[in-house]
Write a structure and sequence with these properties.
Length: 522
């Protein structure tokens, strides 16, 4: 273990007030594609009975009208989070057409051509049209198929009491928010160094349908059968070069060494014209994108972890970060686990909390472009070959086996798990970490290996495997009944969201061209 890690963990163990770590804040954003009975992307609109995708706080859409997104509030108990997420799924199934269901895997179902993938619609208000236009621009820049990949985003923050305590323990002299922001960026840097481990442990996309890469003959995957592609040791193809990548984004180097460097990099990318994007033209003459800059908005920049701050009225997210500091972190590298009803479980969440605390307590030196290249190489190796027992990664220019490095990290995570369990009087964090040790020792226990094992057992394609899981999930949620209070609350949320959308549409005073020009000038 590192000297800083040992020292800081020891200080926390001895401190009065460390029990505040029983109240780690977290929330989940979970995406799922709607599909028809044949496993094809649904072409129907988002059900209006579920509410407005523009203003509903918990049920909305992401890129496509068929890509649903479920959002939980902030909770401290993982069981509460999972219960809320399950209620959203149960409620949704009561409002979906009987023949439709939710796809349980990250890599998509049978896709049509790009033009037939429907963009998410948010109504006639300026903000609604803005959101749809942003998605149209993503389609031109990266292709619509890429945007149908689904995942789970895990939002994490530590309670205010912890930051006060931790600052005193390590002798912080900075202003409270400056200290919190600095420490969250330390977490981010370490997360990027070690998040290859999460791809190994939780990756569940080692295969995909051929329809996903029909326009990419250089995909580099092996034939599994007539309709499926895979790599024998792959973990999370979703996080590889088939995912959210482009030549333009590859040219960006956004530094995580400080809030100033990070926000300056994003500002520059948002304001820098990218000539190839200026060539996009919509056939009907309407705008093809928000603008032709490297990034239309800051959210277009893809990273496995993102610092966040809720903007005030009229603020851009990057402006809110710069002026107010980091409020929470969004982990974005988790696949949907097709063997779990809502795609994630309590065990994973408890491990993530331990892992993120490890990233906080461990030394986190500044990064560099050279180091980022090493991190990217490690990530791609784990994406494509992570379960190869002989896989070697690079650590500061030196080769180290994935297994040896993983055990080193897990040993430190286990120390945090043990500490958290002393606070709760339970064994759940240690148990969650023990499962991850087992996966390192036996790659066949990982979700990615289980997917391929099930495909082999059933002698079936990736599509058939994922369709079977989706049908089973549909049966599971359709058989559940919401209690009366929960059902009434969700119905009221849907109704209120529709009223909010109508109010927004009635309140607009600018035409959309003027609104867009104003938004781009901020």
């Amino acid at each position: 273990m590192s000297e800083q890690f040992n020292t800081h963990l020891h200080l926390l163990r001895q401190a009065d007030g460390a029990a505040c770590l029983r109240n780690i804040n977290h929330g989940i954003e979970k995406e799922s594609l709607r599909i028809d009975p044949e496993g094809k992307l649904a072409q129907t609109p988002h059900p209006v009975s579920l509410g407005s995708t523009l203003t509903h706080g918990s049920i909305t859409t992401d890129f496509s009208e068929a890509l649903m997104e479920f959002i939980t509030p902030v909770f401290q108990n993982p069981q509460d989070t999972l219960g809320y997420l399950a209620d959203l799924h149960t409620f949704t199934y009561t409002h979906l057409p009987r023949e439709e269901l939710l796809w349980t895997s990250s890599m998509p179902c049978v896709l049509p051509g790009d033009a037939a993938i429907p963009l998410a619609q948010y109504g006639s208000s300026n903000i609604g049209r803005y959101k749809t236009l942003y998605r149209k621009g993503l389609g031109y820049r990266y292709g619509r198929s890429m945007q149908t990949i689904a995942g789970i985003h895990y939002n994490f923050s530590l309670p205010d009491e912890f930051w006060t305590l931790y600052g005193k323990l390590i002798g912080n002299s900075a202003a409270p928010q400056a200290f919190i922001t600095d420490r969250y960026f330390a977490v981010i840097r370490n997360f990027r160094r070690y998040s290859w481990l999460l791809l190994y442990l939780f990756g569940a996309s080692p295969a995909l349908c051929k329809s996903f890469v029909r326009d990419n003959p250089r995909h580099g995957l092996d034939d599994y059968d007539a309709n499926s592609l895979y790599l024998p040791y792959a973990t999370s193809l979703r996080m590889g070069d088939l995912g959210y990548t482009s030549e333009a984004q590859a040219s960006l180097h956004i530094s995580y060494n400080s809030l100033e460097e990070y926000t300056s990099g994003l500002y520059q990318a948002i304001k820098t014209p990218y000539p190839p994007y200026a060539n996009f033209r919509d056939p009907d003459g309407s705008p093809a994108q928000l603008n032709s800059n490297l990034l239309q908005i800051e959210n277009e920049f893809y990273s496995s972890i993102r610092p966040k701050r809720i903007p005030r009225q009229g603020q851009r997210p990057v402006q809110a970060l710069r002026e107010l500091g980091v409020e929470d972190l969004e982990v974005r590298c988790l696949d949907l686990n097709p063997f779990l009803p809502v795609g994630i479980d309590e065990e994973t969440m408890r491990f993530l909390n331990c892992f993120l605390l490890f990233c906080l307590l461990h030394e986190s030196p500044p990064g560099s472009e050279e180091q980022d290249r090493e991190l990217d190489r490690n990530k791609m190796l784990v994406v494509k070959q992570g379960r190869d027992p002989d896989l070697m990664l690079q650590r500061k220019g030196q080769s180290i086996s994935l297994r040896d490095w993983a055990r080193e990290i897990l040993t430190q995570v286990a120390a945090i798990a043990q500490f958290l369990d002393t606070l709760s009087g339970e064994h759940e964090h240690a148990a969650a970490t023990e499962v991850q040790f087992a996966r390192v020792n036996d790659p066949q226990l990982t979700p990615s290996a289980r997917v391929l094992e099930r495909m082999r057992e059933l002698k079936t394609s990736y599509f058939r495997f994922a369709m079977n899981q989706s049908l089973a999930n549909s049966d599971y949620f359709r058989a559940l009944k919401l209690n009366a209070a929960t059902g009434e609350r969700l119905e009221r949320m849907a109704h209120d969201s529709l009223a909010k959308q109508e109010a927004l549409e009635a309140a607009d005073t600018l035409d959309f061209a003027a609104y867009l020009a104003e938004a781009n000038s901020r």
